[in-house]
Amino acid sequence: MKKLFLIALALVIAAMIPETSLHAQDLAHYKQVVKELSSAKYQGRGYAYGGANKAGKHIQKEYKKAGVDEVVCQPFTIDINTFPGKMEMSVDGRKLTPGVEFSMREYSPGVHGTYKLYYVDTANYNAEKMFADLAKPEYKDCFVVCDFMFSYKHYKDFQKIWGKEGCTNAGMIQTWEPLLKFYKAYGEKIMGKPVIWATSDFPKDAKSITVNIENKFLKDYELFNVIAKVEGKRHDSCYVFTAHYDHLGNLGKKVFYAGANDNASGTAAIVTLAKYYAQNRPEYDMYFIAFSGEDANLRGSEWYVQHPFVPLSQIKYLFNIDMIGDNNPVQYCEVSDEGMRGYALLEKINNEKSYFKGLNRGELAGNSDHYPFALQHVPTILFEQEDGDAFKYYHTTFDDYQHFLVDTYEPLFKLIRDFVERY
Q1: What is the mean pLDDT of each run of 10 residues along the chain (423 residues)?
Q2: Which residues contact 327 (CB under 8 A, 6 or more apart)?
Q3: Phi-psi category of 220—alpha, beta or left, where left has phi over 0 and alpha has psi -120 to 50?
Q4: Residue spans of beta strands (DSSP E) within 341-405
Q5: CA 187, CA 83: separation in Å to the nearest integer?
Q6: C-alpha span between 327 and 25 (Å, rounded)
């Protein structure tokens, strides 16, 4: 009788505990994985110092600890430009901080020396006058300075300035509003002249810059996707959960991009989902794919789509989780045409449970790893946070664990779990 009483008491207490408390261990695990992957140990999970592959090995261990049935690595190679060495720039003798006051376009070659500056007159813009000025001997091998959006608006003119052919200038400085971004998407080849991004408070009347910037081009660099499987009761169809674990890596020896939100957050989410389904045997097979090479233009997911572990036609639904370390109460998503078959159910569940104030469906775009699957007619959805308090740190040195937020994790976890149970 005493044992029965204790069991009944435990059940009553469990029923009184809010659902969010029952998932507290998942949240703790989620935060632990994000903290680990965004630490200095992985140097921004980039390529030059092997950070991406170190992170991939850690994810293998996390999957195995989660109790999945199988973990496989899928190798592939990329060509990618990196900046692992010197990263120095000064303006009229004043030293600028890499990653904060300046960064590089990912396709730029290295550059060394002192160069005069030529400022584009955007108020009285005249392309012919600009090219005539740049043809003068005093502006040979100069750096052209211009606002990024203005140069983008006049793209055909400025192609001649940052391209290999055309003007005799040495490079270009494009100014942006802070916070300064860094990218890898177009780093698969070195193109044209060095292009430096600088903050909009870059001096308006400086005479010269001195730069010492080293690049290293990696040819046939080896990366790998990490794929875990949880076996279901049925094997004729499967669910797939994806997230990319690579990020931007280094900008010089001392600066790295931690990528806590982008995308340690999504990677941690699929690790905890793998653990959940390993402990709660699903109806269908479940695959959890941590992609590398996403920041290098979706190379890992493109490779997987070309070399799938199971036929793409067997995927009931694919969830791609990218940048959810934020706090927007409205959840942004993108859905493939075939994925629209399940979107009404997602909205219904969200309306019933009020996980989010709403789902904001944007146009399908090639901005994350769901896209190669969508092109192959797989039912897919991207979950990504936009316009939250952490979003402004996207692709900056401030996307670290200190600026990472957990608000989205539990409601999204529950929304996905409920969908899988009812779809």
Answers
A1: 43 42 69 98 97 98 98 98 98 97 98 98 96 95 97 94 87 96 96 96 96 98 98 97 98 97 98 97 97 98 98 98 98 98 97 98 97 98 97 98 97 97 97
A2: 385, 388, 389, 390, 405, 407, 408
A3: left
A4: 358-362, 380-384
A5: 11
A6: 20
